[in-house]
Design goal:
This protein is of the alpha+beta class. The longest helix has 14 residues.
């Protein structure tokens, strides 16, 4: 029922998919987009190896954009750990960050405290931001 009105149910849809993609990391080198893996493998109950932040954020980005919720991918360097990079999504209509790795839905200011975003660490193709 949520998907019938994505604009009216944006936050509930984001929370639902964010939660379904969270947890069960594994296989940091796994690249599902060159192997042809389906998005369903990343949701709860899918594959035992459900990828890292870059995989989950990309899947969430694709799902939300597909259902009509404009979403951007962002990446950044952790301010407290050297060589710790992270990828998450930004939903402009909510002005919130959705992080499917940790199941967070937070204000951009929360992530600004912890990450220097939009830096070249995890290269994302043009137009993904």
């Amino acid at each position: 029922m949520l998907l019938i009105d994505p604009k009216g149910n944006t936050e509930a849809i984001v929370r639902m998919f964010n939660e379904k993609l969270s947890g069960d990391y594994g296989n940091w080198g796994f690249n599902p987009f060159t192997l042809g893996t389906n998005a369903e493998d990343f949701v709860e109950g899918g594959s035992e190896i459900r990828g890292a932040c870059r995989h989950k954020a990309r899947v969430l980005w694709a799902i939300l954009n597909h259902v009509g919720i404009p979403t951007e991918l962002r990446s950044g360097a952790c301010r407290s750990r050297f060589y710790a990079w992270h990828v998450w999504t930004y939903i402009p209509s909510l002005n919130k960050i959705a992080d499917p790795t940790a199941n967070h839905l937070e204000s951009p200011e929360f992530y600004d405290k912890h990450y220097r975003w939009h830096v070249s660490g995890i290269p994302l193709p043009p137009g993904w931001y």
